[in-house]
UniProtKB/TrEMBL annotation:
Family stated for the protein in its record: Belongs to the IMPACT family.
Domain UPF0029 residue range list: 149-183
Protein's UniProt name: Impact N-terminal domain-containing protein
Biological processes per GO annotation: regulation of translational initiation
CC terms in the record's Gene Ontology section: cytoplasm
Organism (species): Thermus oshimai JL-2
Ranges in coiled-coil conformation: none
PROSITE patterns: UPF0029 (PS00910)
UniProt xrefs under SUPFAM superfamilies: EF-G C-terminal domain-like, Ribosomal protein S5 domain 2-like
Domain Impact N-terminal positions: 15-114
Amino acid sequence: MTLAEPVVYEEVIGKSRFIAKAAPVASEEEALAFLEWASEREATHNPYAYRIGPLYRFSDDGEPSGTAGRPILHAIEAQGLDRVAVVVVRYFGGVKLGAGGLVRAYGGVAAEALRRAGKVPIVDWAEAAFLVPFAEVGAAYRALRGLSVAEEYREEGVLLRLRLPKDRLEALAQALTEATRGRVRRM
């Protein structure tokens, strides 16, 4: 699962203002761009974490080691999320929270932001192209019912391009092969 859309959650803890900002990200480049955008230069600290498949990074941004970035990452992992970036902006309010207090504050604010966010399943998309002889185009379209297809006419037939969930690609290729009596060519 990932987030349906960006979310912001704010809480005051020990007179410090904590603002968690989270967003879905598809790549490390997107995560870094989000973190750059969401960080507030005038804040005392901007620790963050992100997870994209097996790739993860976190930073304490000047807080004692292990008190900010890792708890934020733990909040992401504890909710079973992937392709998510979170930054927690802190404006120091004059009260020292101690290591345990910082862990609870950063992790708790990040977790609450993620709990409040809408979630969506992660869908890996695939692009596919099939060359269909003119005589088999009707049969191919029946097999492709409900899918958005782009056409390109060629001398030997119609090139059909489509985008669909990756886990449905092989079943669709098989259905097209059967519908066209094996005359379709995957490009």
